[in-house]
Specification:
Pfam families: I-set, Ig_3
Helix content: 25-40%
Number of helices: 2
Shape: elongated
Structural class: alpha+beta
Domain Ig-like: 58-161, 163-264
Strand content: 35-45%
Protein name: Ig-like domain-containing protein
GO cellular component, one term: neuron projection membrane
InterPro entries: Ig-like_dom, Ig-like_dom_sf, Ig-like_fold, Ig_I-set, Ig_sub, Ig_sub2, Zig-8
Length: 303
Amino acid sequence: MEKAHCTVHRQALWILCVHVICSLSYVAENISTTETTMDVNLIEENHHQHEVGSKWSPLFEDGPGPINVTARIGSTVQLNCKIQLLYDKTVTWVHRKSDDIQLLTVGRQVHSSDQRISLSFRYPNNWRLQIVYITDRDDGVYECQVATHPPTTKKTYLRVDVPTVRMSVTGTGDVTRGSNDVFYKTGSTLEIVCKVVHAGSNNGSKVSWYRGRQTISTGITERTSNDSSSTTIVSTLKIKHVQKTHSGNYTCLVGSPSASAAVTIHILNGEQPAAVHDGNSGPLVCCVAGWWLLTLCCLVLSS
């Protein structure tokens, strides 16, 4: 009887152990499943945290744009691109003009061969593009892009203001004006006035002077005036007691050949203006006359 009682107790204890083991296995399985679910959720969150539209996606501090910027020829322009929540994403700048697309920067590296273009990064988050000595070919759309999927883009429309440039020639002494040329006698005073008119206010544009390809830096005076709609710059080049060496093509330029004016100056040393032109065209006239004379002689001989 006692032996049978011990057997019953052993069976009950065995059943209890089986239940405990099964319970522990179930708890362990649930814990593992919970951890796996958390890991999957964390991976998915990390995968989607930079997707456009998510709470972790990069955004532009000043809004998505677009922005309109007007710059003067010859001035310096800086295009801002302030980005929050960038993390490890790459920023690029591209220039779009008509059907032409130019890659300018990738990260902090400049990929443009144009030395005027640089990335002027400003801490902590301004990926600012800088262009110096602006020309008319710089206008167009500039895109600051963040390498998300799809790319996050902010557009800046740059318009380059091309001023009107007019040139007039005055001076003292014996001055003769032709259609495209001005003649001075040796010892006269040469004075060339370059008038530049900008729309709006002045933005640092500069008038440069050249004789041929040589830069002129002396004998120049400049004054600027403003009204409600425009800015006028009057730059004057004055040379006293001119000599033959002062002859040449004089150009005033504001940042680009499209904003320039030129005049050809001849300094005479006793000769007449007509003689200058005759001296240049004489060989051509002589050759033409000689050709016709030779033709006439051949016709006479052949008859």
